[in-house]
Specification:
single chain; 453 residues; alpha+beta; Alpha-Beta Plaits; Trigger factor, domain 2; Chitinase A, domain 3; 3 domains; 6-stranded antiparallel beta sheet; 4-stranded antiparallel beta sheet; extended
Length: 453
């Protein structure tokens, strides 16, 4: 077999030619046919005793096509790997050299593949390059709001005999009415739940606010929830499709009123938020809360820095030539649902993404930026911690974090995502020491406006 590569004049594409002769595939075809013979069930012959001539007549052409295609595919990707060809997309059959292959009469075959090369992007960064790193100013109001959130999250629901307030959870017996009396065969529940604050119609809401345990209220769910079918279905425990037919009044006999009570700012709250004995005074608690708020903004600051990094890299890269027609062909071939118009519309953004990716890849290689297994583990743990924090879980045991991170890394897609982010993290850290970095403190509003630019 002979494999040769011819570069095109555009320097970003080439044609790879694979010449296959009978000697390259003959043994593989023969071995495959012998395997077929051992397994073939042909009437009139015992298993494994079918004449080879008949096997060749029945399966020979299909086996030949399969083995040649397999050989070409393996040879193609081995050549790319062994010659360190940095290609974009996948090799495609060359349209100009494409020809009919006669597997009945011919023994030698030629295959031609178009290849799009990744252009080399080499950018230099020095202290002459200026970049900003934005830090959000965490003021006392933000600390107070976070503490209020902790007090709410770690609060309790207690039974009360006081009149119902908007935010109370009201439990009761619900009965569908007809002409003011219980409807025969109608909806009846012993454990219905609602919160007056979620009732949208003011008059219906007012029937509950101020009511006491034991009182019976006549109200109309269709009016109270103003046609919100999901809420009505959940409240009455019926299928959503049944809701449009439910227009009746209902009786709601209040059996229980539960009120949310905020957690007090004391040692119990300190321990729930940060762990036993970590914080022992309100002053230290406020300081620790402030640190946690600052930490919550750090990923957003890093993300903004990466967005600015992208702009800098693209500017430094300048105009870069790509094998446009070939890449568009590959985009169409890789997604049968795409049209040429869609590819043409999306292509400019795809090229920008490619330029940024190649610039990053070049800098990582050029500056020997590597990640170790410990870097991957640390970043996965950081992601796990952030995900728990989204649900108000700020003091997750180390073993739970470790197990969650390990499970995340078992998924190939998640693992690759963590690796990519860990590399970006290291690249950002390297970049901060390479350029002239200016840290700017901004308010939350100022920071949010930066993303509108």
């Amino acid at each position: 077999m002979n494999i040769s590569l011819k570069n095109n004049e555009d320097a970003v594409s080439g044609v790879l030619k694979i010449e296959v002769v009978k000697a390259d595939y003959a043994d593989k075809v023969e071995k495959s046919l012998r395997s077929f013979r051992q397994k073939a069930n042909v009437p009139g012959f015992r298993k494994g005793m079918v004449p080879m001539g008949m096997i060749k007549k029945m399966y020979g052409k299909n086996v030949l096509i399969e083995e040649v295609n397999k050989l070409v595919s393996e040879s193609l990707y081995n050549y790319i790997r062994e010659n360190n060809l940095n290609i974009l997309g996948e090799p495609l059959p060359n349209e100009a050299e494409h020809q009919y292959l006669d597997f009945d009469d011919e023994e030698d075959f030629n295959f031609h593949f178009d290849i799009a090369f990744a252009p080399e992007i080499d950018i230099d960064l020095t202290k002459r390059d200026k970049m900003n790193y934005y830090q959000v100013i965490v003021d006392e109001d933000m600390v107070n709001k976070q503490i209020e959130s902790y007090c709410a999250n770690f609060g309790t629901y207690d039974d009360t005999d006081e009149p119902v307030e908007e935010k109370d959870l009201v439990k009761g017996k619900v009965t569908e009415l007809e002409n003011g009396a219980p409807k025969e065969g109608g909806i009846a529940l012993d454990d219905a739940l609602l919160m007056p604050m979620y009732l949208k119609e003011a008059d219906e809401k007012s029937k509950f606010v101020g009511a006491k345990k034991g009182s019976a209220i006549v109200f109309n769910p269709a009016k109270a929830y103003e046609g919100a079918e999901a809420e009505i279905a959940s409240f009455l425990k019926v299928e959503k499709s049944e809701v449009p037919n439910i227009k009746s009044d209902f009786s709601f006999e209040i059996t229980e009123v539960t009120r949310h009570k905020l957690a007090e700012i004391n040692q119990e709250l300190f321990d729930k938020v940060f762990g036993d004995g970590i914080v022992t005074t309100e002053e230290d608690f406020r300081s620790k809360v402030k640190d946690s708020v600052v930490e919550q903004f750090t990923p957003q600051s890093d993300y903004k820095f990466q967005l600015d990094t992208r702009k800098l890299f693209l500017k430094k890269a300048g105009d870069v030539a790509f094998a446009d027609n070939l890449l568009k062909r590959w985009l169409l071939a890789s997604d049968e649902n795409k049209t040429e118009e869609q590819v043409d519309a999306e292509y400019p953004q795809i090229v920008e993404d490619l330029k940024y990716h190649l610039a990053k890849e070049s800098l990582v290689k050029k500056n020997d930026i590597k990640i170790e297994n410990t870097d991957i583990d640390i970043y996965a743990r950081r992601i796990a911690k952030a995900q728990f924090a989204q649900y108000g879980m700020y003091t997750v045991p180390d073993d739970l974090l470790d197990n969650y991170a390990k499970d995340m890394l078992k998924n190939k897609q998640s693992l690759q995502s963590v690796i990519d982010k860990a590399i970006e993290d290291k690249l950002s850290a390297w970049l901060k020491g390479k350029v002239k970095l200016e840290t700017k403190e901004v308010s939350v509003d100022e920071f949010n406006k930066l993303f509108e630019e």
